[in-house]
Amino acid sequence: MTTIDGRTARAIRTRDLIVDACIGLVDEGDLRPTAPKVAERAGVSVRSVFQHFADLEGLYAAVGDRVADRLQSLVLVIHPAEPLAVRLPEVVRQRSDLLEAITPILRATAVHAWGSVEVDNRVRFGRRFLRDEIARAFAPEVDARGNEGGLLLDALDAALSWPLWEHLRTTGLHDADGARAVVTLVVAGVLGVRAA
Questions:
Q1: What is the pLDDT of residues 156-168, one digit of tens each?
Q2: Threshold 0.85, pTM exceeds
Q3: Which end of the chain lies in a sparser environment, N or C, as judged by fewer CB atoms within 10 Å?
Q4: Per residue in 103-152, pLDDT tens?
Q5: CB 116 within 8 A of CB 62
Q6: Any residues with CB less than 8 A from the CB of 144 and at least 6 apart, and which?
Q7: Distance of CA 62 to the CA centre of its chain
């Protein structure tokens, strides 16, 4: 068992407070939280922020890592052997729960990814991970398409993507349940089946 001395434990707590403060600001709609705002929210000095993170990019990378850790419970847990009538609504439900939960962070990454190698790397990893989940969940349908399986996967990926979710939610026309119903209809259409 590894023991942590008091100074190290305080440093870890302070670092966690800073990351949590940044996430809290983003969740409240501040897509570009500044070091002074993060410090104030965390109850630490700006100097302390930069003692724990070399720059804001490092902080944003830590935020990305923390969000990824927290979302582990929202990954798709769907067995491809289940009938499509069971898998389709469950994939849409689980994916919409995840998209709803990470919308504030994804809005912030849309602002930061273009100028941050760390954020861009995490966004790319996340996109691949989410696409791989869809590929596993709908493997029988993708495999059955043979050479066109890649196109089907592209269409499913688009139908279950955050940009579509964000469009449905921000138009003001759909709450989460309404957006989920639209996504279900789109995914069913892509698969060539009737939505339940």
A1: 999 999 999 999 9
A2: no
A3: N
A4: 888 888 777 666 677 777 777 888 898 999 999 999 999 999 999 999 99
A5: no
A6: none
A7: 14
